[in-house]
Amino acid sequence: MCKASIASGKDITTAYAECGFGDYSGFYRTFRKEFGMSPNEFKNSSEKIKSR
């Protein structure tokens, strides 16, 4: 759900709050462990794909 929120263009702070994280650092660690990249790296890569 968080990944989809970020890919849809939502702000990362909105996405982590909607996913139940209380702070960015916990969200960042969990996201990086799960997907192998930071939330910002994911957002940037999904924006590049959309612009093609």
Automatic annotation (TrEMBL):
Record keyword Transcription regulation present: yes
UniProt key word Transferase: no
MF terms in GO: DNA-binding transcription factor activity; sequence-specific DNA binding
Gene3D superfamilies hit by this protein: Homeodomain-like
Cited Pfam families: HTH_18
Organism domain of life: Bacteria
InterPro entries: Homeodomain-like_sf, HTH_AraC
Name of protein: HTH araC/xylS-type domain-containing protein
All copies of domain HTH araC/xylS-type, residue ranges: 1-45
Keywords: Transcription, Transcription regulation
